[in-house]
UniProtKB/TrEMBL annotation:
The keyword Repressor does not apply. It comes from the Bacteria. This is Tripartite tricarboxylate transporter substrate binding protein. The keyword DNA-binding does not apply. Belongs to the UPF0065 (bug) family. Keywords: Signal. It holds the Pfam family TctC. Residues 1-33 form the signal peptide. CDD domains: PBP2_Bug_TTT. It comes from Saccharopolyspora oryzae.
Length: 325
C-alpha cells in the first residue's frame, strides 16, 4: 500500500513532536495524582477531530457518565494530531490522576507497533470496552466501483485513491489486508478523523473511503454515498445495514473490528481505578449506553478493567501480524 508507508514516515515525525509536548506537560500535569477519586471537573480527551467516530464516542461517554453520576462534570477536550499520538502522550503526562479519561480505539494498539512512541496500552489503565465497530467501504454513487472485489481489481490496473482516518489506524489495517490477501494496490490518503475523510470522498478528492456506519449513515440515506461492503464475517443485523454485503461474501477475506473504549492514566490508585470501573458498569446498564450503541450501530460487546486488558493483549497480537509484516 503506497500511502501506508508514506503515512508511516509522516507519523514518525508527528509522534516525535507529540512526545516532546508530552514531556513538557509532565511536571505540571500531575493533577490530583494518587487521589482515590476525581476532584472537580473531569476531562474526557478525544484523540481525533470533532465529527468522527472517536469524537462521537467520547461525547457519548462523557454524557453517559454524568447521567449515572449526576454530581460529576465531564468536559470533552479534542486533542487531535499525530494520528492520535498527541492525545495519548498528553494522557501519559497525567499519570496517577483520576481527573482524566480518554476515548480510545484501535490506534492505541497500532501506534506503538508502528512508530517509536513512549507508550503502549500498558501505560494506561483500561476502564471499559464499549463495543466493536466494523467499517464500511463507501464511494460516490457515480463511481464505477460497485463492490470491494471490484475495488481490489481496479486498484491493480489504475490509481485508486482511498481516504482513511489516521495513517496507521483501523482503516489502514483493512486496506493493508486487502492488499495482503487479495493483491490490491491502493493509494491511501490519511486524514485526522472521520469528518475530514467524509469531506474528502464527498468532494471527490478520494474515490473510496473506509468509514464507520455512524459516520456515514446520513449520507447513505440521502443517496450521497453508496456502501460497497462491510469488512466483517457476517452482515449487520440493524435493518439500515442488513442489505450491505460483507467483504467475505465478495471473496475478499478481510474482517476487522475497531473497538471503542475508555482508558484512564496509568498509575491510578486502586480506589480510583475501582471508582471509574464502577461508574463504567453503571453506564453500561443505563439507557444512555443502549441509546449510544443503537445510534452508532455498534456490536455491544463490553469488558471492564482486567477483562478489557486481556482483550487488548489478544488484539495487539492480531494487529501486530498486519502492522509488522
Amino acid at each position: 500500500m503506497r500511502g501506508f508507508s508514506c503515512g508511516r514516515r509522516m507519523l514518525a515525525v508527528l509522534s516525535a513532536v507529540a512526545l516532546l509536548g508530552g514531556c513538557a506537560l509532565g511536571s505540571a500535569g500531575q493533577d490530583q495524582a494518587g487521589a482515590p477519586r476525581p476532584v472537580g471537573a473531569v476531562t474526557m480527551v478525544v484523540p481525533f477531530a470533532a465529527g468522527g467516530g472517536s469524537d462521537i464516542s467520547g461525547r457519548a461517554m462523557a454524557a453517559g457518565l454524568t447521567s449515572v453520576r449526576p454530581q460529576m462534570r465531564v468536559d470533552v477536550d479534542n486533542r487531535e494530531g499525530g494520528q492520535g499520538a498527541v492525545a495519548y502522550s498528553y494522557l501519559l503526562s497525567k499519570a496517577g490522576s483520576p481527573n482524566y479519561l480518554l476515548a480510545t480505539e484501535t490506534s492505541l494498539l497500532v501506534l506503538p507497533l508502528s512508530v517509536d512512541v513512549a507508550f503502549s496500552y500498558r501505560s494506561f489503565t483500561p476502564i471499559m470496552k464499549l463495543g466493536e465497530d466494523y467499517t464500511l467501504l463507501v464511494a460516490l454513487p457515480s463511481s464505477p466501483i460497485t463492490s470491494c472485489a471490484q475495488a481490489v481489481d481496479q486498484s491493480r490496473h489504475r490509481r485508486v485513491l482511498a481516504g482513511i482516518s489516521g495513517a496507521l489506524g483501523p482503516d489502514a489495517v483493512v486496506f493493508s489486508e486487502m492488499e495482503r490477501v487479495a493483491g490490491g494496490d491502493f493509494d491511501t490518503v490519511p486524514y485526522e478523523g472521520g469528518g475530514e475523510t467524509m469531506a474528502a470522498v464527498l468532494g471527490g478528492q478520494v474515490e473510496l473511503a473506509s468509514l464507520n456506519p455512524s459516520e456515514v449513515m446520513g449520507q447513505l440515506r440521502a443517496g450521497e454515498l453508496k456502501a460497497l461492503c462491510v469488512f466483517a464475517d457476517q452482515r449487520y443485523t440493524y435493518p439500515q445495514l442488513a442489505d450491505i454485503p460483507t467483504s467475505v461474501e465478495q471473496g475478499i477475506p478481510v474482517s476487522f473490528a475497531q473497538f471503542r473504549g475508555m482508558i484512564a492514566p496509568g498509575g491510578l490508585s486502586p480506589e480510583a481505578t475501582e471508582h471509574w470501573i464502577s461508574a463504567a458498569r453503571s453506564f453500561a446498564e443505563s439507557p444512555a449506553y443502549t441509546e449510544y450503541v443503537a445510534s452508532e450501530f455498534l456490536q455491544p460487546r463490553v469488558a471492564f478493567g482486567q477483562d478489557f486488558a486481556a482483550y487488548l493483549e489478544e488484539s495487539e497480537k492480531l494487529v501486530a501480524q498486519v502492522v509488522r509484516r
